[in-house]
Amino acid sequence: MGDQIERRKAQHIDIVMTQDVAAAGITTGFENYRFIHEALPEVNFQDISLSTEFLGKEVKAPFLISSMTGGTEKATSINRHLAEAAEEKGWAMGLGSTRAALEHEAYAHTFQVRKYAPSIPLFANLGAVQLNDGYDETHCRKIVEITEADALVLHLNSLQEVFQDEGDTDFQGLLKKMEQIARRLEVPLGVKEVGWGIHGKLAKRLFDIGISFVDVAGAGGTSWSQVEKKRTKTPIRKLAADAFKDWGIPTAEAVTDVRKRNPGKTVIASGGLQNGVEAAKAIALGADLVGFGRSILNEAIESAEALIQVFDRIEFELKTAMFGIGAENLLDLKQTENLKHIRLSSG
Amino acid sequence: MGDQIERRKAQHIDIVMTQDVAAAGITTGFENYRFIHEALPEVNFQDISLSTEFLGKEVKAPFLISSMTGGTEKATSINRHLAEAAEEKGWAMGLGSTRAALEHEAYAHTFQVRKYAPSIPLFANLGAVQLNDGYDETHCRKIVEITEADALVLHLNSLQEVFQDEGDTDFQGLLKKMEQIARRLEVPLGVKEVGWGIHGKLAKRLFDIGISFVDVAGAGGTSWSQVEKKRTKTPIRKLAADAFKDWGIPTAEAVTDVRKRNPGKTVIASGGLQNGVEAAKAIALGADLVGFGRSILNEAIESAEALIQVFDRIEFELKTAMFGIGAENLLDLKQTENLKHIRLSSG
Amino acid sequence: MGDQIERRKAQHIDIVMTQDVAAAGITTGFENYRFIHEALPEVNFQDISLSTEFLGKEVKAPFLISSMTGGTEKATSINRHLAEAAEEKGWAMGLGSTRAALEHEAYAHTFQVRKYAPSIPLFANLGAVQLNDGYDETHCRKIVEITEADALVLHLNSLQEVFQDEGDTDFQGLLKKMEQIARRLEVPLGVKEVGWGIHGKLAKRLFDIGISFVDVAGAGGTSWSQVEKKRTKTPIRKLAADAFKDWGIPTAEAVTDVRKRNPGKTVIASGGLQNGVEAAKAIALGADLVGFGRSILNEAIESAEALIQVFDRIEFELKTAMFGIGAENLLDLKQTENLKHIRLSSG
Amino acid sequence: MGDQIERRKAQHIDIVMTQDVAAAGITTGFENYRFIHEALPEVNFQDISLSTEFLGKEVKAPFLISSMTGGTEKATSINRHLAEAAEEKGWAMGLGSTRAALEHEAYAHTFQVRKYAPSIPLFANLGAVQLNDGYDETHCRKIVEITEADALVLHLNSLQEVFQDEGDTDFQGLLKKMEQIARRLEVPLGVKEVGWGIHGKLAKRLFDIGISFVDVAGAGGTSWSQVEKKRTKTPIRKLAADAFKDWGIPTAEAVTDVRKRNPGKTVIASGGLQNGVEAAKAIALGADLVGFGRSILNEAIESAEALIQVFDRIEFELKTAMFGIGAENLLDLKQTENLKHIRLSSG
Ligand SMILES: Cc1cc2nc3c(=O)[nH]c(=O)nc-3n(C[C@H](O)[C@H](O)[C@H](O)COP(=O)(O)O)c2cc1C
Ligand SMILES: Cc1cc2nc3c(=O)[nH]c(=O)nc-3n(C[C@H](O)[C@H](O)[C@H](O)COP(=O)(O)O)c2cc1C
Ligand SMILES: Cc1cc2nc3c(=O)[nH]c(=O)nc-3n(C[C@H](O)[C@H](O)[C@H](O)COP(=O)(O)O)c2cc1C
Ligand SMILES: Cc1cc2nc3c(=O)[nH]c(=O)nc-3n(C[C@H](O)[C@H](O)[C@H](O)COP(=O)(O)O)c2cc1C
């Protein structure tokens, strides 16, 4: 079982890096927004601050490394690079699904990055559907311990499971089980999607049962039906995948909706983001933090230095966008009136 | 006459399979809708049920094989494949225009598929305009008997007749005649178009005179003016056909309109559908059943097995779409609020 | 002077036939409308009537040959072909600008087509701006006599004159002069544009001074700035022409607006029309007659037979469109509710 | 320092002329407007007047040469050509940033064009941000003296400074400092952007502190982040620049907004304009003057004669557009109701 997971995790990275698995017929929706330029910002660029806090810890920038990997040897170095870069830049970091570590002790070390990132907010990750497959709070607690994480995130990935030959597709009664975990676990519990988005009403139901933060992980970037299409050995899955290329809630719409219905709650925007201007739009639309996954994977494989260069670019872009609208800090950005919807529909 | 029909029917299949006869400048309109993803479906994929009933019989899935052929030798095997696959999967089936069987006893067997499909809803088919060409309830009754059908469907194909050199183009007084047939025939009478669509007010007039079900057969798939363009020997018809490439009511608009004005009535969506996600949209917009024609013709020529694979794919797509919005059965799907109009106009 | 006009007229035909002078960035706007198909027309195609009347004469179809040529030898045969075809099919016909015939007796015969078309509505044509260049009612009367026309049409072509090296660009006080002509001339006086359109308020002012009919001659077809660009020897005109490629009121918009503000008045739609479906839309939007120019010029050069074939196609397309929405005659078409605006803006 | 500025100024011209530095994903927005053609203009083309006044002087046309260069040897001839052409045609002229002249006496002559253009409105130019870098009213006064200018314009170029390795990015407290200069300087003080636009509320704040005129210098033409991308030696700037390709307020939107909120004030439209039809739209949307920069640079390098030909073309296009809508002078054009918004969003 652990072996199967390892193989799957390795394949995911491989497929995502080498094949065309982009969503098609759907975009993140950020291109439908444009900032209204503030020609006289009345701000000193040097004074612009990106710092905020997350999971009770200060982060130097409102950024998050999205949950990606672990449980495979290749992941060991990827996770180390990510952790080192995150520590250096003060970003938060999500680990990939830590299930492999539970099922196979030998994989535990692939997730153990706390030594490289002592100060950042770090969270462990597990598929919510596992709660219908024998997992309970004991396992959740164990994952958190093994990874020395500040929080646990459960991911909702219904359609991915459908397109996996080995998928778990019983999503009944999960809300109740998540509520119990949330109540009993010593660390905060978050919920995320993996690329099809979470809407505002669902986020509300999640916050209502005690979930601490929601990552919308919306559509417009990687399409997981396309990824699994490359892996599946069932002809019908391969054929059906194409009909889901444009499935999901565009990230920009998901963030907007989740924020509107959940004032004051911690919301993370991820899904297809590529640069700091899009991040600025996400924050102006309501996000507290912005996550990057696929678009930093290349550098994550390479080295911490390569990652740091990307992080620097993203931060510079965000700062420049803030300068462009005269926002000196994230609160200014969140409250800006300088973001305009320039198109009616999302492609 | 029977010979002429046979030739026409054979040509239709041939042209549709080998030439470009797609509508242009018009689409089904389904691409203007997008499902709002429900990240936490609270459903077990295995429990999703597609069953419903049609013409008093249970069908295992809300699908229909659209009326396509008969009256030509080639049709014998096509119809057998279709019938066998329909029986296997529990789909309903429409026969192609059964006029040839009446005019030429020798062709009757090409429609006699009841032996391969004893349990499914099956219906016979006739051009409504034939009622102005000597046909009456006696003929209708005979067709039903020959085919052992559960119902008869009259098709409205005004523009196709115009583009046929041998076409019947007197469509006067048909409503009244259909009313009589509906009243006197022992089986239910349905009405369908062939690819240009039926709107809500006409559907209402049809239900008002006793028609049992309406298949919108809308635009966006095969263009029948383009098909007849390839057959006609009249230069003027060939030239004029192009001006009608974008004629018709997009299928999605037709279904929406017909449902809105005819609550509680049996509505079939067909015309250009290719997969189960589009079928899910059609049902969410108001269809009870969804028909597939052109997009399964390839496999229909090949074998029942090939067809079954397509049917499996379509059902899997529909189930996955339902899972994606947390619908456990067709009633949930029909009542969903998770379908969103994402564009203003239809291309 | 007559020589110069002859050269210009010959060049126009030549340029229009061989070079790309299409408007760009603007369309007729008819593509923004779609007919709602009426699956049960309750009409016999054979009974559909296209006849109407114009200038007190019956026309067999609501069609008009737009004013194109005359005053050049080449025009003699073109005009003869047009007249013969018009007589054969019962279309109305407009002659090209008959100014040459006045300035040069020798050219008069190029316009004298009444012998080939004894029964149709025929009208002579003159640039309205000539009224500021020495022309008055005497000249108008003479033109009508020479051509045995049923009416005279004055064309408004301000931008064309600007782009002609020899252009007359004093358009002051023309309304008053047109009013006088309208009052004193024995035949009806019409007004047309040449491809940039007439809007509703101007049409009203024209009808108010006694103009009998208005031909919108809107944008989306031939761009006259592009035509004159090919002729001009002034570098500045050549360079400036491109900025006017998308100038004008799209034909569909012009017709709609003119009709809305001028109920009961005689309105002609022309400008970029190519087929009978577009003609049907024009009529449904408010036109009484529909004119074709550039799109029949090829055949006009060739022969009357070639023209007749095009006329047959256009009539067949119109009839088929009417059949498609269940309109038995032009009044039905004018009053149809089956025309839908499917896009917001015109490209 | 003067050397550095000289190098920068020379590079700017070089890059703008030879490389692709166009804004992408954003346009000026003028293509979203279309003039409603007035087929009967009732105007004599010869009588159309373009004259207006600016900075207390009469200009023969509502046109302005946008601030471009100076402070480099190459600029000497460019500025001379521009001045000679401006004098010949009666256009206003803005000099490029005159900072170099202050820091390096030797460069002063590159801006001294008053001898070639004794009668036109001429203005000097300085980066507003310099007021945070040691510049004050004394320097402003000196620049005006050296250049014999009628006014001084301060440019706001926040994002350009961010993308320059040597950029000044402290934009704090500039409004107050501009207010002082405006109060104390003997000539009028204007404010402009450099290609990202000024919106209506900011313009109001500027007029409120005593600024005499505002040039929106909006987006859709040259992208200054793209220009600086070619110059920068910092990898992060090079990478980040692409995210700002579509930044800014489209020129048409900026003009509209600035005019709406500042009735009666002097507003200049510039940014990406290419011809006189766009200029006509800008004026109809509210501009008093229209500026051209990049699109006349080629000819500015060549000769005064080449420039004059372009100016003639632009004036001819403007006049023709005015003729096309029946406007005899700029007041008519400003008050026209013949400009229509044909699309909802700007690309
Ligand atoms: C290679 C790869 C592996 C991933 N593995 C996980 C995972 O184990 N758990 C999870 O919650 N999300 C996983 N994701 C999803 C991401 O966390 C994220 O939600 C999604 O990719 C959208 O963001 P992006 O477009 O920036 O990549 C993975 C993504 C990638 C690209
Ligand atoms: C080859 C072929 C033959 C057809 N023959 C008939 C027919 O005899 N009677 C009928 O009502 N419709 C006929 N149709 C129309 C279909 O039933 C259906 O309404 C139409 O094709 C739209 O659906 P589709 O786009 O899925 O093909 C035929 C369609 C095809 C492709
Ligand atoms: C070759 C050619 C010559 C024309 N000459 C005249 C003319 O003399 N007088 C006139 O009123 N319009 C003239 N027109 C304009 C047409 O009458 C018509 O208004 C215009 O072309 C728009 O219609 P179309 O797009 O169908 O050609 C001419 C058009 C063409 C193509
Ligand atoms: C080569 C070049 C140099 C420029 N230098 C200046 C400058 O020194 N000061 C300034 O205010 N604007 C400067 N600009 C900006 C222009 O004045 C103008 O605002 C901008 O280019 C938008 O107009 P355009 O699209 O017509 O070029 C420069 C533009 C160009 C193309």
TrEMBL record, chains A, B, C, D:
Could you give the subunit structure recorded for this chain?
Homooctamer. Dimer of tetramers.
* The gene coding this protein: fni
UniProt cross-references to Pfam families, sorted A to Z: FMN_dh
**Entry keyword GTP-binding:** no
Cross-referenced Gene3D superfamilies = Aldolase class I (3.20.20.70)
Record GO biological process: isoprenoid biosynthetic process
- Provide the catalytic activity annotation: isopentenyl diphosphate = dimethylallyl diphosphate
The protein's Enzyme Commission number:
5.3.3.2
GO cellular component terms listed in the entry, alphabetical order: cytoplasm
Question: What main location does UniProt list?
Answer: cytoplasm
What does the record give under GO molecular function? FMN binding; isopentenyl-diphosphate delta-isomerase activity; magnesium ion binding; NADPH binding; oxidoreductase activity
* Residue span, FMN-dependent dehydrogenase domain: 7-99, 175-336
What is known about what this protein does?
Involved in the biosynthesis of isoprenoids. Catalyzes the 1,3-allylic rearrangement of the homoallylic substrate isopentenyl (IPP) to its allylic isomer, dimethylallyl diphosphate (DMAPP).
Residues that bind Mg(2+): 161
**Which branch of life, at top level?**
Bacteria
Q: What is this protein called?
A: Isopentenyl-diphosphate delta-isomerase
Q: Which family does it belong to?
A: Belongs to the IPP isomerase type 2 family.
Record flagged with keyword Signal: no
What residues does FMN bind to? 66-69, 97, 125, 192, 222
Tell me the compartments it is located in.
Cytoplasm
PANTHER family reported in the protein's UniProt record? ISOPENTENYL-DIPHOSPHATE DELTA-ISOMERASE (PTHR43665:SF1)
InterPro entries reported in the protein's UniProt record: Aldolase_TIM, FMN-dep_DH, IPdP_isomerase
Keywords recorded for this protein, A-Z? Cytoplasm, Flavoprotein, FMN, Isomerase, Isoprene biosynthesis, Magnesium, Metal-binding, NADP
Locate the residues binding substrate: 8-9, 97-99, 160
Q: Which cofactor does it need?
A: FMN; Mg(2+); NADPH
What is this enzyme's class at the first EC digit?
A: isomerase
